[in-house]
Write a structure and sequence with these properties.
The complex is a heterodimer.
Chain A (H helix, E strand, L loop, with lengths): L18 H21 L2 H21 L9 H18 L4 H23 L4 H21 L1 H4 L12 E2 L3 E2 L3 H23 L2 H11 L1 H6 L4 H27 L4 H4 L1 H14 L6 H17 L5 H15 L3 H14 L1
Antiparallel strand pairs in A: 1-2
Helix pairs in contact in A: 2-7, 2-10, 2-12, 2-13, 3-4, 3-5, 3-10, 4-5, 4-10, 7-10, 8-10, 12-13, 12-15
Chain B lengths: L1 H19 L9 E7 L10 H15 L2 E2 L2 E9 L4 H14 L4 E4 L3 H14 L2 E4 L16 E3 L4 H14 L4 E7 L2 H16 L3 E8 L7 H10 L3 E5 L2 H13 L8 E4 L4 H7 L1 H4 L3 E4 L7 H14 L5 H20 L4 H10 L11 E2 L5 E2 L2 E6 L12 E7 L1 H4 L13
Parallel strand pairs in B: 1-3, 1-4, 4-5, 5-6, 7-8, 7-9, 9-10, 10-11
Antiparallel strand pairs in B: 2-3, 11-14, 12-13, 14-15
Helix pairs in contact in B: 2-12, 3-4, 5-6, 8-9, 12-13
The chains are: A mainly alpha, B alpha/beta.
């Protein structure tokens, strides 16, 4: 599949910094995350983290395999409903209901991938879009589970491992941070593994990967399913964080939004999507009270980004560091 | 060290909740949050007009309550319930919001009412239609003001049947809102001894409704009801006019249409359409005076949602004055005791489930030659008393009703 980049992608992401520099930057980010609720409003940071995870999971297929999926909202939304429903009606503890959300996302991802992976480029995008529209239609119609346009409301946060109540905002916050860091570490591990190297080789030159004897479709399907499962975890965590799941999560605009986040932050970089997601969620939140038309402003920012720094915020930053080194 | 910080945070939040329970005004002011749709499909029926209506209510009340200032916050929830709930929590926790009004879009309305119930903050829905707000999901501090899906069906259908429309065909938007309107209307039609000739469902949203309209026309039913909303309703009415349905003697009924919808349809195409509303500007001197002031400020006549934001904000402020505090539970109880009386709602009461019960009106869209101005679009067909228009609170299934 041929999502071509105007610039040479950076190969391994860690290659930009020395090991020590990466560690220091990572440590600073983690400290910032831990300290954030004392500076920023925790509910807002939690939501930003959920979308950051969503974008990172999406980037796993767009950035590292080169598959442009237009159906990730289906995994996000289906998992949000699954987590919300299981927490509310089956009484599952939060960690189990999120895992259940991840499982649902993964199963949907496997089915979507199995159908769509045989096609390339725009056809792949259209098939994923069509399938996700079916999921949207189900969400709209199966009101017994999803509540239709009213949404699934009043999802309880429950007690972690049946012991620790997550109703306290700070406890919930650190739970979300933990989920995010675990998933992010997992994505990092996948990208920097032999498996990840094969994915990147598929992105760079698929016929060559085939000629080297790799079963390309299988690698793509595994990556797609992993991405969908992680998206499911993000959707599930979001459902517990804002305590609802609604049609917004499963609508095609959400698939567009995650593409926007990923491109803004920098496709194919590890932290880029998280940066992009934080930016978009912040804009949505802060512009809401500003009286400016939110969608227009975000659109303008996107256009400027695509025209001026095509590698996204983190991509440009990396390129800048790279230029200074040489 | 980290543990200490965590403990400090927990202690601080306990302190905050502790002080909110005290008598008097929290933060030495009353904060009114207007959470609405400023950029999406509901911007015309609510939007900037709702913020203006809340500002008018505050100004009419004198700008202060119990001698303290009243502050207005506003935000665009973009019709996304997760954005709405984040903003609502932030308003309540960080900015000391005492009441949140408007809340157009049912998923937003339900989400924010839930948060208000949990945090003991008054929420007053004007824009959302879903009757679930005052049924199982009712809260002690949640109110539903001007209309709901139950009242739409229970005002329009009996009144139209009483006027002789005894056979119906319903065109329904295929989602929960449409389904519940259709079900309510069908039960009323059966109850009143009229016949339901047929129903058809169209996808939501739909630009081309011609095939559904032709089926309805061919059914020969005396009345064609539209169980849809917004752009779908506008399209339905405009296209029905192209097929000459009204000219052929069939009556059109929009179960939900706002003044702004009729304004954009225009009298030429919309004439003869029956519409239910909880407020119309050209009813009496009081409503006209209010609407003229609104028009000067906003440049449009108020829809029932915008008028409802005015009425509900005003009623909230009166209740704060009477209760001597802005503690949510106390004010909510006071609001339910006091009759609702202002320029918009002349004679309303509030049931235990938070439902504001008042007269509803069945209107007919005027012919172009009957109209005296741009906004002079309705003539009153029938006034339906609140007790008939709204669901009996005892049947709502709300746990607060004894």
């Amino acid at each position: 599949m041929s999502v071509k980049y105007s610039t040479t992608p950076s190969g391994t992401v860690t290659g930009r910094f020395s090991g020590r520099a990466s560690l220091i930057i990572g440590a600073i980010l983690i400290v910032a995350l831990l300290a954030a609720p004392y500076v920023l409003y925790p509910a807002f940071v939690m939501k930003a983290l959920c979308f950051a995870l969503f974008a990172c999971a999406f980037n796993l297929v767009l950035g590292f395999v080169g598959l442009l999926s237009f159906g990730h909202a289906a995994f996000f939304g289906a998992a949000a409903y699954a987590t919300g429903y299981s927490a509310k009606f089956f009484g599952l503890t939060p960690e189990l209901s999120i895992l259940f959300g991840g499982l649902v996302g993964g199963v949907f991802g496997f089915v979507f991938g199995w159908v769509a992976i045989r096609r390339q480029g725009i056809y792949f995008a259209m098939i994923t879009l069509a399938l996700s529209q079916m999921v949207f239609f189900l969400a709209l119609q199966v009101t017994g589970i999803t509540g239709g346009e009213d949404g699934l409301q009043g999802v309880p946060r429950g007690e972690l491992f049946g012991l620790i109540s997550l109703d306290e905002p700070l406890v919930m916050y650190y739970f979300v941070v933990a989920v995010f860091l675990i998933c992010f570490a997992f994505i990092w591990r996948v990208v920097n593994s032999p498996f990840g190297a094969v994915l990147k080789s598929i992105r760079e030159n698929e016929p060559r990967a085939i000629s080297l004897g790799y079963n390309v479709d299988r690698f793509k399907l595994i990556a797609f399913t992993l991405s969908a499962a992680l998206t499911g975890v993000a959707g599930g965590t979001k459902a517990l964080t804002v305590q609802l799941a609604s049609l917004t999560d499963v609508q095609w605009q959400m698939s567009g939004e995650v593409i926007l986040m990923t491109l803004l932050g920098g496709v194919g970089t590890l932290v880029g999507p998280a940066v992009g997601a934080t930016l978009v969620v912040s804009l949505e939140n802060f512009l809401a009270t500003s009286g400016l038309p939110v969608t227009t402003v975000i659109g303008v920012i996107f256009v400027v980004c695509v025209l001026v720094f095509r590698r996204g915020i983190v991509g440009e930053f990396n390129a800048f560091l790279g230029r200074r080194k040489h | 060290m980290f543990k200490k910080a965590l403990l400090a945070g927990v202690a601080a939040s306990a302190l905050i909740t502790g002080t909110a329970m005290a008598e008097g005004l929290s933060g030495d002011k009353v904060v009114v949050g207007v959470l609405t749709d400023l950029s999406g499909v509901y911007a015309d029926i609510a939007g900037k007009g709702s913020i203006a209506a809340a500002e008018m209510a505050v100004a009419d009340y004198g700008g202060t309550v119990l001698g303290k200032p009243i502050e207005i916050l506003s935000a665009d929830h973009q019709n996304k319930p997760d954005i709405a709930s984040t903003i609502a929590r932030e308003w309540i926790d960080a900015q000391g919001a005492d009441v949140i009004v408007d809340l157009v879009t049912s998923s937003v309305g339900l989400a924010v009412q839930g948060i208000g119930g949990e945090k003991g903050v008054v929420t007053i829905n004007s824009g959302a239609a879903t009757v679930r707000l005052t049924q199982k999901e009712c809260t002690a501090t949640g109110f539903h003001w001007i209309y709901d899906t139950y009242s739409l069906a229970h005002v329009t259908s009996p009144a139209v049947i009483a006027e002789g429309g005894d056979s119906w065909y319903i065109i329904t938007a295929d989602y929960a809102f449409g389904h519940s309107l259709e079900a309510d209307a069908a039960s009323v039609i059966a109850e009143k001894g009229a016949t339901l000739v047929g129903t058809v469902r169209h996808p939501f949203p739909s630009a081309d409704l011609s095939s559904y309209l032709l089926q309805a026309q061919a059914s020969g039913a005396k009345v064609i009801g539209f169980a849809n909303a917004g752009q779908d309703t506008i399209n339905s009415v405009k296209q029905a006019s192209e097929f000459g349905i009204v000219a052929g003697g069939q009556k059109l009924v929009a179960l939900l249409a706002f003044l702004s919808d009729i304004h954009s349809i225009g009298l030429e195409l919309g004439q003869g359409l029956n519409v239910t509303t909880g407020f119309y500007w050209n009813m009496d001197d009081e409503t006209r005076a209010f609407a003229e002031r609104f028009n000067e400020k906003v440049g449009r006549m108020p829809t029932m949602v915008q008028a409802s934001v005015y009425s509900s904000t005003l009623h909230y402020l009166k209740a704060v004055e009477a209760a001597g505090t802005d503690d949510g539970a106390t004010v909510a109880a006071k609001m339910k005791e006091m009759p609702v009386k202002d320029a918009v709602v002349h004679d309303g009461t509030i049931a235990a489930n938070g439902r504001m019960i008042h007269d509803m009106y069945l209107m007919e869209v005027k012919k172009p030659e009957e109209s005296t101005g741009e906004w002079d679009v309705y003539k009153l067909v029938r006034t339906v008393p609140g007790a008939e228009a709204f669901q009996d609170p005892k049947e709502s299934g709300c746990a607060l009703v004894e």
